Amino acid sequence: MLDKTLKPAVSANELLEQFHSSRQYSCDLIKNLSAEDCQSQSMEDASPAKWHLAHVTWFYEVMVLKPYEQNFAFWNPAFAVLFNSYYNGIGDKHPRTQRGLLTRPALSEVLEWRKNIEDRVTKLLKENSSPDVLWLIQVGINHEQQHQELLLTDIHHLFSQNSLYPAYSSQNKAVAHADTPFQWIEGVGGLVEIGFDGEGFHFDNEKPLHTALNPDYFLANRLVSNSEWLQFTEDGGYKNFKWWLDAGWAWLQAHQISAPLYWNKKNDTQLFRFSLEGNSPLDMHAPVANISYFEADAFARWASENIPHLSGARLPTEFEWEAFAKNKPVQSKDLFGKVWQWTSSNYNPYPGYRPWAGAAGEYNGKFMVNQMVIRGGSVYTPADHSRVSYRNFFPTHARWQMTGLRLAKF
Ligand SMILES: [Fe+2]
């Protein structure tokens, strides 16, 4: 059965509240969207909003209700295939690249199905508050939160394909100032404790807690801003192979990359950035966002040689970032809630890592190759879904997430 070391640190009642509020939040996120908005898939990496709403429901149906509900029956057995993301242990999957073709079930049926599963999970939780059930529901809540963030990043990308530049929201979600004077802050060198430590929910990839050796290093007190990034572009940063990893240079040329995703020019002159609030003049003080690992790495190399106070700049390792966030959080701005921060760490298992038992074992471990770790959280990350030990990860070219950077140096 499930790993008994994973003890839910909440009561059934608290969990029920968290469950309902996370389910409600997903529905809140599509309040300003039409059924057509929820249907479209703008690229392979992105999924339709409707698919996200369905897939997180599938997770509860297959992972929680199927093994634990008395007289379990699928709402529709075909959905088990349509909304399976990547779980080979569970069965067949509809191709990821063709999620946008699923015009059936309609959004209205997905919402009905959501309600049905919610009622059944609620009933189950009231009848069976065993540690296994509580823990699986916690996984379900955290899983849905990850998809809430993806839903926003995917809608952002979808809307960016439309020259009407539709605004998803009038709330000023994206503007986050990075205009604090720059400062290097001494890091936490020597032996440091890395990983999740404590009670409560965490993913398997944050364990085990272990010791790592950090060099003596410094971390920037703030994120890299758009104005700093503009200096890089204006200095021909995207045109000089000198700053780029070989794979990054090939990627840049193949895709004709010359600026962060969502930067655009109006009348060929003024720089704009498209966000969920629509297309607006680029805010020079905001942290740069939607850059790939390749771009973050190239920027650091360029900055090290071209900006005197950034001499020696590089990307931090995830251990440098985490030791800092655990020990000196108040000295550093915007560790969370603005943009994810690229690290130079490959997404590898920690020493002694064990994936979760059962079907959930496919959640993280099988992705531990060819990806880099990002740390922190973004403006799209649900409020209670950030931790100092949280490890997110993306391939080196990905940039539709709200990814930015914070510099480090020896
Ligand atoms: Fe998922």
List keywords for this structure.
single chain, 410 residues, alpha+beta, Four Helix Bundle (Hemerythrin (Met), subunit A), paralog of FGE (formylglycine-generating enzyme), 2 domains, four-stranded mixed beta sheet, three-stranded antiparallel beta sheet, 10 helices, 34% helix, 12% strand, binds fe (ii) ion
Polypeptide structure, described:
- With 410 residues, this protein is α+β, with helices and mostly antiparallel strands.
- The protein folds into two domains: 12-160, Four Helix Bundle (Hemerythrin (Met), subunit A); 184-409, paralog of FGE (formylglycine-generating enzyme) (Alpha-Beta Complex).
- Helices cover 34% and strands 12% of the residues.
- The chain has helices at residues 12-29, 35-39, 49-68, 79-82, 107-127, 131-160, 226-234, 246-255, 293-306, 318-327, and strands at 184-186, 190-194, 210-214, 218-220, 263-266, 270-275, 278-281, 340-346, 372-375, 392-394, 403-404, 408-409.
- The strands form four sheets. It has a four-stranded mixed beta sheet. A three-stranded antiparallel beta sheet has the order 1-4-12, with helices on one face. A three-stranded antiparallel beta sheet has the order 5-6-7, with no helix packed on it.
- Strand 5 (263-266) and strand 6 (270-275) form a beta hairpin.
- Helix 3 (49-68) packs parallel to helix 5 and helix 3 packs antiparallel against helix 6.
- The longest helix is centred in the middle third of the chain and has 30 residues, at 131-160.
- The protein is globular and about 70 Å long.
- It starts with 11 loop residues before the first helix and ends with a strand.
- Fe (ii) ion is lined by residues 55, 85, 143, 147.
